[in-house]
Structures are given as structure tokens and as C-alpha cells.
Amino acid sequence: MNKNPFSKPVDITMLPENTPERAYLEFAKAWQEKDYEGMLNACQQSWAIDYADATIKTLDEAFRGVELVQLIYVDRIPTEEMRAKGLNLDVVADLKVCVKIKIGGKTKIEVFLPRVICESGYQQPDPKGKWGVNPVSCFKKRPAKR
User: Fold this and answer.
1) What is the set of domains in the chain, with CATH numbers?
2) Are 46 and 123 in contact (CB under 8 A)?
3) Given this model, what pLDDT does residue 3 score?
């Protein structure tokens, strides 16, 4: 993907369907439009089921104060790093996203590490399932090195 922060917005339709990157872009597009129903549709299935009674409200509360101004780039965390964590790459993808956000009237560029999971049902990881964003991970940052 283009890493130039002044480039045109990423075109979702240029990505293959049902990939971790596409799932995140669909989530981000809905976030930018404050479309919490759309965000929910792009979420990990287990998360959506766990919070079924309050999903839209939960997403609204978590994302209301953070306006997504621009998605700058999305990259997948390198395979070696994922394997070192012992993750099944067929059903888990950690992404690195750079976004321009506005919080409390201040605009800044941040890099976050959201996780995207592929499931065929509640807590059923499946490489033939549907990729969905774990919204709890959307504001995760890489720990500072000591």
C-alpha cells in the first residue's frame, strides 16, 4: 500500500475480498463515517456475539471521541514476528496501520496494531471463515523498547 500520508485515500475495492486488510479497511471506512452498524459488520464474530446486547453502544463509546481523518496505510506484521508469538497465521493477522486522527480538536498521526481474526462462528477459528476486526485491539500500540 502507499505509505505517503498525502496520497489519495486507499481504495477498498482494489483489495481481494475476505482478507485481513480488506476487513480492516471496511471497519475504518465505517469508523470514518461514524457508521457503527458498519463497524459491527466488520468486527470479529466472537466479539460481536459476546457484546450482542450492547455492541453499537460499546463501539460508539469507544470510538466517539476519536475521529478518523485519514487512513494512511495498512501493512501486515511480518510472518516471522507472528510465528514467534505462536499465532496461527491462517486465522490471525496483526496489522500495522497508520492513521490521522482527531481527538479533542487536535489532529495527530498514530500507528496502531489491530488484530484481525478469521472465524466461521463463535470462537471457531477457521481459515475458510470471515475475517473480522477485534475492535478492542484498534488502539493498541507497540510497547516501548526498554
Assistant:
1) 18-136 (3.10.450.100)
2) yes
3) 46
